[in-house]
Amino acid sequence: MTRRELAAAGITDPALCTAYTRCRQLNARHGRTYFLAARLLPAERRSAVHALYGFARWADDIVDDFDQRLTPDERDRRLHRLETELTRELRGGGGEEPVVRAVADTAARYSINHALFADFLASMRSDLSVTDYPTYADLRVYMHGSAAVIGLQMLPVLGTVVPREEAAPHAAALGVAFQLTNFLRDVGEDLERGRVYLPADLLAAHGVDRPLLRWSRRTGRQDPRIRAALVAVEAMTREVYREAEPGIAMLDPRVRPCIQTAFTLYSGILDAIADQQYTVLHRRAVVSHGRRAATAAAGALRVVGARWRARVPGARPRKPADGAAPQ
């Protein structure tokens, strides 16, 4: 499948093939939901998605590696080296890191705005010093770089049937919805890293603070105040999903099944959290294998339908407005 994806994308240089393959491996290992959804994309676009995910994962791992021997200054130096290498690659090449080579090649093929990568790395760097967010507005500033830009990077790869700027707010919202879902699912793990990504004012409105979260995490005991706060975060997250959903119909019909599948699987994590009584401080909520398989199967059927409509005379959808195919 990897060779087919690379050939479909017109990637033939051996070093680039190796670089994209490395990104695909990162996606398969760490991004199960994204990887499953990406397999529903047209083959020529999958490598670009793997590159974008692989780079994001590479940077995130620098920040969140549990190796306690690495100080914040050492992590900051590693991020700086990554940013320097990316800048060099974006300006014409010369770097050695495979993941960076792949993402720079993707940026060139799809004319992705370089500022989006700078914004992403700025948010990653803030994780080295910022450990909580007083308000939702403060958190949204962080999530612009850590999540919204991912949706905006993806948009040229996916292609749209409307002007790209019309779809952009929905793409950004989808990235934010996915990350808010992660924050709610991973609140216990993030607490172990010394961070709380849930807005402090929202928590305080329900009588929750960091010491109470630590107590619950340490003892395994639940508290009704924590549950009420997590229910409020879930409601806030579902509202962002509602902001994002209209954007799916703005995409190239051939990629809609992929994004709809990711949308369904990720929002399904919220259902799993509710089904497990919001015990996210004590265990990670996951979508069942059965539900994942059923969702993927439904997505595969939609892919078949989209491809059929694209080939049958009189059933052809409108040509995507931009970013529909690699150059």
Give a quick summary of the entry.
By secondary structure, the protein is mainly alpha-helical. The protein has helices at 2-9, 14-30, 32-38, 43-64, 72-90, 98-110, 115-126, 136-158, 164-185, 187-192, 200-205, 210-219, 224-244, 256-275, 289-311.
Overview of this protein structure:
The structure is a single chain. With 327 residues, the chain is mostly helical. It is 70% helix and 0% strand. The chain has helices at 2-9, 14-30, 32-38, 43-64, 72-90, 98-110, 115-126, 136-158, 164-185, 187-192, 200-205, 210-219, 224-244, 256-275, 289-311. The chain is globular, with a radius of gyration of 20 Å. It starts with a helix and ends in a 16-residue tail after the last helix.
For this entry, give a set of tags.
327 residues
Residue stretches low in confidence (pLDDT < 50, at least 5 long) are: 312-320, 322-327
Q: Specify Rg, calculated over alpha carbons.
A: 20 Å
Which shape, going by the Cα principal axes? Answer: globular
Task: Report the structural category.
Answer: mainly alpha
Distance between the termini: 21 Å
* H-E string: HHHHHHHHHHHHHHH
Determine the number of helices (DSSP H or I, runs of at least 4 residues): 15
